[in-house]
Design brief:
6-stranded mixed beta sheet, alpha/beta, 14 helices, globular, 12% strand
């Protein structure tokens, strides 16, 4: 998956342990199980009191290119009248990649702290797409579920869930997946009453997308950190207790990441649920290790239509009188009581 492994250099910086804020969007049990999940905050008081409040909504992702860890979609919404003044002028949100880990964590903490202006005005949500589920979709034997399709579906579902909450979303801004025009037309068909703008580098253009990118990035950093802590505890790693010191940012171009992959490759299973096996980096390392264990998986579709032994012992459903029995059912004749009756 070489195309998805490219990234901005700024994204290679890993948050140190002191900078990682473990937000409410971190569901540790799901992360440890390799499960994808969605987190929503409560409706801000402004919208809870007045559902007709016109709102603006932004969506962005973090972690599209790494070979380790989840891809996270972040969404943030707030009243239109506060869009520029609160996010841009007061708190100086920007593309998460140009903000330091400490600044990102500080902004996220304010979004999660009751009584702050951000908490009172903004609602947000995240969709954590696990490495396991991303790979499972991309490696399907038939009907491959590629990363763009997975990302688009995650975005659409997040937005739908905000509408279900009763939020009066008037404007939507999204960082593009592929061609902005094609993506925008698709979203306009799904949300026809809302003004939608899809653009490249939207996280640098629209404050609500910048804020969504912070939610996504802080959540991904924290997810990577708790995953590494679990790995380090289980493996008894004491000299590298933090993700930044162990597998680094999770990107293939990060030397710490590739070194960790090479040092910790299981001869049979490769790595754990933290790895995207559909990525070229993982495939190349496994191939270079030599021939692995070959597994022939059954074709699920064929099995569904295959004849089973038990099929020969089931009554036919077409004949209401029960006369149309399977050949083997009446092979030895019917019980005497049944024949007499």
């Amino acid at each position: 998956m070489n195309g998805s492994e490219s990234q901005d250099t700024a994204e290679l910086t890993s948050a140190s342990d002191e900078d990682v804020f473990i937000a409410p969007s971190i569901h540790e049990q799901d992360i440890f199980m390799g499960a994808s999940y969605t987190h929503h905050t409560l409706l801000p008081e402004i919208m809870a009191k007045d559902p007709s409040t016109p709102c603006v909504l932004g969506v962005d992702e973090a972690g599209r290119g790494p070979v380790l860890g989840p891809m996270v979609y972040g969404l943030l919404y707030l009243p239109v009248e506060k869009h520029q003044s609160l996010l841009a002028s007061t708190h100086h949100f920007d593309d998460s990649k140009v903000l330091t880990p400490a600044v990102r964590s500080s902004l996220m903490r304010k979004l999660c702290t009751e009584g702050t202006d951000l908490y009172q005005a903004c609602g947000w949500a995240t969709r954590v797409m696990s490495a396991r589920d991303i790979s499972a979709g991309m490696l399907k034997p038939t009907g491959t579920y590629n990363l763009n399709a997975q990302a688009m579906d995650a975005t659409i579902e997040l937005i739908k869930e905000i509408f279900i909450k009763g939020v009066n979303v008037r404007e939507i801004y999204i960082d593009t997946i592929g061609d902005p025009k094609v993506y925008q037309r698709k979203l306009e068909r799904i949300f026809p009453t809302t003004s939608i703008s899809v653009a490249k580098k939207a996280d640098s253009l629209y404050p609500c997308v910048s804020a969504a990118s912070v939610c996504a990035k802080v959540t991904r950093d924290a997810a990577l950190e708790v995953s590494y802590r679990a790995y380090a505890s289980e493996a008894g790693v004491e000299n590298e207790p933090r993700a930044a010191e162990g597998w680094g940012s999770g990107y293939p171009s990060d030397a710490r990441c590739t070194s960790w992959l090479k040092r910790n490759m299981d001869p049979v299973f490769g790595w754990g649920i933290e790895c995207r096996f559909s990525w070229g980096t993982a495939k190349d390392l496994l191939d270079a290790k030599g021939p692995g264990v070959k597994v022939d998986w059954p074709d699920v579709d064929e099995d569904e239509h295959a004849t089973r032994v038990t099929d020969f012992f089931i009554k036919g459903n077409d004949d209401s009188d029960g006369e149309d029995l399977n050949e083997l059912v009446s092979w030895f004749g019917r019980p005497a009581t049944e024949a007499v009756l």
